[in-house]
Amino acid sequence: MSARVRAPELRGRGWLNTGGRDLKLADLRGKIVIADFWTFCCINCLHVLDELRPLEEKYGDVLVVIGVHSPKFEHEKDADALAAAVERYGVHHPVLDDPELDMWQQYAARAWPTLSVIDPEGYVVATMAGEGHAEGLARLIDELIATHEAKGTLHRGNGPYVPPPAPETALRFPGKAALLPNGNLLVSDSARHSLVEIDPDGETPVRRIGSGERGRADGPAAAATFSEPQGVCLLPTHVAEVAGYDLVVADTVNHLLRGVRLESGEVVTVAGSGRQWRAEVDDHAHDAFAVDLSSPWDLAWYDDKLIIAMAGIHQLWWFDPIKRTAGMYAGTTVEALRDGPLTEAWMAQPSGLSTSADGTRLWVADSETSSIRYVENGVLGTAVGQGLFDFGHVDGPAESALLQHPLGVCALPDGSVLIADTYNGAVRRFDPASNQVSTVADGLAEPSDLVLTPSGEVLVVESAAHRLTRLAPGALSAAGASTVDGPRHRTERKPTDVAAGEVTLDIVFTPAPGQKLDETYGPSTRLVVSASPPELLVDGAGTGTELSRRLVLNGEVTAGVLQVTAQAATCDADVEHAACHLTRQDWGVPVRVVDGAVTRLPLVLRGLDA
């Protein structure tokens, strides 16, 4: 164990969930503290929120989780947007607003999410990057409880969390919507863990499906439960008749697909084990009830199957309601933007889907690359967007236009597509015929989906305003659109200076207490490396099983991003029925090639020493 390091003081622009109180580390002395460095756009960060909930419940009298919000996108720096996100995602612990990433730097975070564990005496005792650490954290907390109870430095009792007042609105952070055969709309009321059927006026609730409590119970409309549902998709009539349900819901935080029978409102689970996917990439068909999913966010019927925007692992999956099978459709799980054949393309948190009127093209809102992609003839292409770190509000030619974290798309009959440009608060339109992007409407509160009615009207799911909004008549005409030349942003993280030529990439991994590497089914580790631009890497790209890799960097490429994905399989040691675990992390590491710089690049997958 290295020398103990004092935790830096917690400072930021303000606090949430504390009743207006500013917290200091001295206020938390005697408690075990987990500082969770997160940003609300990041699906891995949302996974960690869900992983922490059972720990907060189990260790509520000794553990305090502090969310340190360190934003990626410009919109996430807005204090009101952060407050909305804290409610939207059910964050029930204090949150420190860190808009300039000061705390991120003080605690030496390098990836979203990062967890720092502080002991009751105020020392950092562990730092963990990525998700999948619940078991390791529980063991570490047990050790800290035993140690500090014996020393007399552990203080039991209530923590500093103060819940905000309960809001009163018909919807709360609606996510997605679909048009029903009777002309009504079905909306996923995400923060209230249910579905709401709404009159064609877009305002009047007709019925609610789901009790409103977080859970995963099947059953009648009033008793069934969801956990932050998102996408909803009607099945073709002939498929629904065989399947026995009419539409499918992406039950996002449960990692499930649920079927709904519209006549009765009954809910049934149709795909997913309920476990989060942490496995190997394959092209096999799997039993739909046995397969693990990861944060399914939207759904669309395309290519004679239900396509799933699997935001949690940066892929598209497919589901066959008749054969009751599911599998991977596009993407490799690498988080980046790369076009090509479906099995080789890269995506980053796909969150919106829409099928073209002629059924030949599937539009995809690829949120973390701020891009609009499309599937056609077995290939994934990009219509608008430039990558993980470039975003803004810029109209004009598609090759130079910029979006900011779009979550929804809606294909129009003329071949163009509307975009819910979420973090710009706008509806945008891309016209493939002219290759132009324009702004149709702005001033919206985090639009997350769009619905085209039979009469040609467009309804916007205005998520942060908790309502559906109808676009003004004429908004879709050429005269109704505008051309915005707004700000251009690039996420700037301090690059690591590395030398041209040979560089050693080391992934530092230490199993959690009580665990060991699991080689029961082959190598326990996996490492995938690529670069943007690709020319940055002369050698070392590709997939292997060793967590150390010789890279050769091109001295003629002065800067770029190394894209690294690492995972390690572990199991419980010295127990009769050992549980298995998989730790995984993606990094986008900005580098600058400089003569005489370092020749070793270490990244921590999980480190249990500060």
UniProtKB/TrEMBL annotation:
Pfam families: NHL, Thioredoxin_8
Thioredoxin domain location: 1-146
Gene3D superfamilies for this protein: Glutaredoxin, TolB, C-terminal domain
InterPro entries noted in UniProt: 6-blade_b-propeller_TolB-like (IPR011042), NHL2_NHL_rpt_dom (IPR045302), NHL_repeat (IPR001258), Thioredoxin-like_fold (IPR012336), Thioredoxin-like_sf (IPR036249), Thioredoxin_domain (IPR013766)
Spans annotated as Disordered: 201-221
Superkingdom, taxonomy of origin: Bacteria
Organism: Micromonospora arida
The entry's keywords: Repeat
Protein name: Alkyl hydroperoxide reductase
Keyword match Transport: no
Family matches, as CDD domains: NHL-2_like
Keyword Repeat: yes
Source lineage: Bacteria, Bacillati, Actinomycetota, Actinomycetes, Micromonosporales
Listed Basic and acidic residues bias regions: 204-217
